[in-house]
């Protein structure tokens, strides 16, 4: 039995050296990354037993993904298939004014065909927490149905459900996202959402504290976490909003920062921490992730503990 089960697609990320154009690239760095597996690894590094649930093509690229995630200590509950392809994405990085460019190549991947009937529900029913994101139902109509059934099964079993809204404009328009994702809200206990998505997709108004209050009261969530980029996050629980600033960090790679935050937050909550403490661990893990290349937060709990303890020392002086 795992503490946490996550469900989603993990991709191979190919990146030319910083500043190089994709159209002229002669070499690529290869990383494994996907929101749900990024969260899974962060939670595992903070002490949770975690299972990643997915569907993967039985190809060298599919095996690369699964073997790497196993190497990070995750249990992998995978449906192997001979059909479909391994999803990839490309990241072109540069400074101002060009910035970063992301190109997805995930259409018709093996994962987009995942049905609930193929998956092992026992792992979800036995887990302490089930987690997925708004990226998954954006990938296909099949996955919209599957996500709904998995959340329903988790709720019926008494498993806590957590969901990162995680809107991606490259995958679907705001109107479609709002309709689909808000229909999932009755099956969700813990919602994580960026302030910009609450405003631009759900069409709510207000600052992050007000957004958290509105979401919590309107949809009857147990907990709402509203992230606010470089300003940190706020967490709503029992009608009280707690604020958590971001920790200072030197950024090597911003990819996966939000996933690192969410994984640490969920791990600490499941371990019994209150919301303010879990937010602090999330912010500390996110700060560490920004110093690490790739998509995954290869942190240790002792490193995160040190940042949290250092912040507490600063406050007590």
From TrEMBL:
Q: Name one GO molecular function term.
A: 2-dehydro-3-deoxygluconokinase activity
Q: Output the InterPro entries linked to this UniProt entry.
A: Carb_kinase_PfkB-like, KDG_KDGal_kin_Halo, PfkB_dom, Ribo/fructo_kinase, Ribokinase-like
Gene3D superfamilies according to UniProt: 3.40.1190.20
Organism listed in the record: Natrarchaeobaculum sulfurireducens
Instruction: Give the domain of life.
Output: Archaea
Question: Which EC number(s) does the record attach to this protein?
Answer: 2.7.1.45
Q: Indicate yes or no for the key word Chloroplast.
A: no
Which UniProt keyword terms apply here? Answer: Kinase, Transferase
The Carbohydrate kinase PfkB domain extends over 1-297
The UniProt entry's coiled-coil ranges are none
Instruction: Report the enzyme's class at the first EC level.
Output: transferase
Q: Which family does it belong to?
A: Belongs to the carbohydrate kinase PfkB family.
Name assigned to this protein: 2-dehydro-3-deoxygluconate kinase
């Amino acid at each position: 039995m795992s503490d946490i089960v996550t469900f989603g697609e993990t991709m191979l990320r190919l990146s030319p050296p910083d500043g190089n154009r994709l159209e002229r690239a002669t070499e690529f760095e290869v990383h494994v990354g996907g929101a749900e597996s990024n969260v899974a690894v962060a939670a595992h590094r903070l002490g949770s037993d975690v299972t990643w649930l997915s569907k993967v093509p039985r190809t060298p690229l599919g095996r690369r993904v699964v073997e790497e995630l196993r190497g990070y200590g995750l249990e992998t509950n995978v449906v192997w298939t001979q059909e479909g392809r391994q999803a990839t994405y490309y990241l072109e990085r540069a400074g101002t004014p060009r910035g970063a460019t992301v190109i997805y190549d995930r259409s018709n991947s093996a994962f987009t065909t995942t049905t609930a009937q193929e998956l092992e529900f026992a792992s979800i029913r036995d887990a302490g927490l089930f987690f997925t994101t708004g990226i998954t139902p954006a990938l296909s109509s099949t996955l919209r149905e599957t996500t709904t059934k998995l959340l329903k099964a988790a709720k019926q079993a008494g498993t806590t459900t957590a969901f990162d809204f995680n809107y991606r404009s490259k995958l679907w328009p705001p109107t479609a996202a709002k309709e689909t994702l808000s229909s999932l809200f009755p099956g969700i206990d813990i919602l994580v959402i960026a302030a910009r998505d609450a405003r631009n997709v759900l069409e709510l108004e207000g600052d992050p504290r007000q957004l958290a209050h509105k979401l919590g009261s309107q949809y009857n969530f147990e907990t709402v976490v509203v992230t606010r980029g470089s300003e940190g996050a706020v967490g709503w629980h029992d009608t009280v909003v707690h604020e958590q600033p971001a920790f200072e960090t030197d950024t090597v790679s911003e990819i996966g920062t939000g996933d690192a935050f969410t994984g640490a937050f969920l791990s600490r909550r499941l371990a019994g921490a209150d919301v303010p403490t879990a937010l602090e661990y999330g912010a500390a893990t996110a700060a560490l992730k920004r110093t690490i290349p790739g998509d995954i937060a290869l942190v240790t709990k002792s490193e995160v503990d040190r940042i949290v303890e250092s912040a507490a020392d600063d406050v007590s002086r």
